[in-house]
Write a structure and sequence with these properties.
magnesium ion binding; single chain; TIM Barrel; 8 strands; alpha/beta; 8-stranded parallel β-sheet; binds 3-methyl-2-oxobutanoic acid
Amino acid sequence: MIKISDLRKDKKKNKLVMLTCYDFTFASLFEKEKENIDMILVGDSLANVIKGEDSTVKTTLEDIIYHTKAVRKGAPSIFTVADMPFMSYQISVEEAVRNAGRLISEAGANAVKLEGGRDFSEHVKAITRAGIPVMGHLGLTHQWINVFGSYNVRGKSSDESDKIREDAKILQECGAFSIVLECVPEKLASNISQDLEIPTIGIGAGKEVDGQVLVLQDMLGMNDNKFKFLRKYSQIGEITRNAIKEYSKDVKEKSFPSKKESF
Ligand code: KIV
């Protein structure tokens, strides 16, 4: 399992590989590929991927605890980051520490991730002080969808780009061990990665970052998502549909179950 203490010194050596995961079955497959994956994220994207909601603000702390527990059972030796969902840390520093603590002690995560920059510097400091590693998340921060009103690329204007760059430095000073950069121009992500001693992990942030993260179901081709940054590494959606068709045909034609498949 990766060690937080090695991340700074290894920053320039190896790119970090991170994927989201929400359940035991997939986590068990990750565990078999543990040489090929550094970190799992139990993301608040589970609102979209697992619950069929239209926004990550619909993920609750109980959802993340439930799914992180399942993931840890399947992948006990992969460093697992649990997302702090909407309203689990925004209200107060005290609530942020308490809820981050539940993600570690009840759910079994190794670290937590939270969205936001300078506005949450006290939260990041306090959670880290309590012994919980914090991953930051800047750029497109889905939990603010109702304020921004769009999922567009962030940091295109120089004002916004400067703010994101400063926020990254602030998060590092506050103790964050790594930062996700989502949907920002490649140049900005590259500058931030050079500014920082801690690793950056990109999603839609180009290749000049220290690692990459994708949503598992997106990269497996299990849905119709077509983001510019997304590469599909499989067509599991199509494979599943074909399996359903074949099974249905076999049942209707009475070729399943066969004698060998019966008692
Ligand atoms: O919840 C999530 O899946 C995330 C990734 C997009 C980084 O935060």
